[in-house]
Specification:
423 residues, alpha+beta, 5 helices
Length: 423
């Protein structure tokens, strides 16, 4: 009986030792670059194993490097970061191919081995970049276009303003155009747009678009909120018994408004890579009741409770006025958006959109192509509106711009159309 117990104990010990020291899984090699085929920095290769590593060897070839084998055998952990520096193989400033081969053996009693190989281009030179033409001057709240050429096919390109990127559209081999905006909320001294191109390796070059900007003052108004107004707003847009009318208004005007902006900005990413509009944009009939970028301070019993800026213009005619398309385009949205009520958004190509809000009736559907002057809706007072009117916006890459510029045929021809490629 004792012999049997001893034998069982030995079997268990052997099994435990086999489990601990024998690994049937191969070591893993992670190159750490995803789908990239070009790099501009050291290559960090992560090597891991369940039990531990015994030996890691590698060779590098390309440029001035030859297939010289180097090995590591001291591993404090179950993982090891192998760092390859392709820059040491460079013979000149030109990009070059580099091959890295890695051989790994783990510390299992029955050793597992794995081999890996990768070929990359090492490139630490930023793409060549040059402006070709474009808008000469902008003003705060206005728009412009720049045409430029990149020396190679870029991984990403456009116009960057701080961390916002205005997308670019190819119109010829290595040639691009990008519409960009001086947002009304950015001071002239802080407006520093840059045309940029980034290659697959991550090298980036930035240049100025070649335009200048000017200050422009927009109106500011103070709006005193009455209890009657607040009650109507709450009943119309947020009938919540747990909130006071003032709390409801502040949430609608501040939080819901921002949520609605995000919805609109997302819709404005739907655009055709071509010019759909022709000439100046039509202004719908009616009197202007509120201006673009009007800075509004809302007070209640003399205390400031909210501040917002008007992102379009309000046009009021007779009730239920027929609303027409400001220019040729495609319907990318037709539905309800919070404080905007019923909305139609048209894409005019190259990231330019027009928006029509507070509508009582929508007469188009998503995907419809419309011509300048086509009826698309009927004015109303849906959303955060009190009195029948049209809220009209023009946005570029989702950022609102001054519509007055786009109503002006001379401005459109001088600042936009004359720079665009023909056909």
């Amino acid at each position: 009986m004792k012999k049997i117990l001893v034998l069982l104990l030995l079997v268990l010990c052997f099994a435990a030792a086999f489990y601990v020291y024998v690994d049937t899984n191969d070591p893993e090699i992670s190159w750490g670059i995803g789908d990239k085929t070009s790099i501009n920095a050291p290559l960090k290769i992560e090597i891991t194993d369940d039990i531990g590593l015994k030996e890691v060897c590698y060779t590098v070839s390309g440029g001035s490097c030859v297939d010289k084998k180097q090995c590591f055998t001291d591993f404090p952990d179950r993982s090891f970061d192998l760092v390859i520096e392709p820059a040491k193989c460079a013979q000149n400033a030109e990009p070059f191919k580099i091959q890295v081969a890695v051989n790994v053996v783990d510390s299992s009693l029955i050793a597992n081995k794995v081999d890996g190989k990768i070929e990359l281009t090492f490139d630490d030179q930023a793409p060549r970049l040059a402006t070709l033409d474009g808008t000469r001057s902008l003003k705060r709240g206005g728009a412009g276009v720049v045409l430029y050429e990149v020396g190679e096919h870029p991984d990403e390109t456009g116009v960057v303003l701080d961390d916002f990127v205005f997308r670019a559209f190819a119109y010829d081999q290595n040639k691009y155009l990008s519409f960009y905006v001086h947002p009304f909320y950015v001071e002239p001294d802080d407006f520093k747009p840059r045309v940029f191109a980034r290659d697959e390796a991550g090298n980036t070059r930035k240049i100025r678009p070649g335009s200048r900007t000017a200050a422009y003052a927009y109106p500011a108004v103070e709006m005193e909120l009455t209890d009657n107004f607040l009650n109507v707003v709450q009943e119309k847009l947020m009938n919540d018994a747990n909130k006071t009318p003032l709390e409801a208004f502040v949430q609608i005007n501040d939080i819901v408004r921002k949520e609605n902006y995000r919805v609109i900005e997302a819709q404005c990413q739907k655009t055709m890579a071509q010019k759909l509009w022709e000439g100046a944009f039509l202004r719908n009939l009616g009197a202007t009741k509120a201006d673009f970028a009007e800075h509004r301070t809302y007070t209640y019993r003399s205390d400031v409770v909210s501040r917002q800026a008007h992102t379009g213009i309000d046009i009021a005619g007779v009730n239920n006025t027929e609303i027409v398309a400001a220019n040729h385009g495609k319907v990318v949205f037709a539905g309800e958006i919070g404080i905007y009520g019923n909305v139609v958004i048209l894409d005019h190509g190259y990231g330019i959109h027009s928006l029509y809000g507070h509508l009582s009736q929508i007469d188009v559907h998503e995907g419809d192509m419309v011509k300048k002057g086509d009826p698309i809706a009927v004015s109303g007072e849906t959303g955060l509106a009190f009195g029948d009117h049209l809220h009209f916006e023009i946005r570029i890459n989702g950022i609102p711009v001054n519509p007055i510029e786009w109503f002006d045929d001379v401005w459109v021809k001088t600042n936009i159309d004359r720079f665009l490629p023909k056909g």
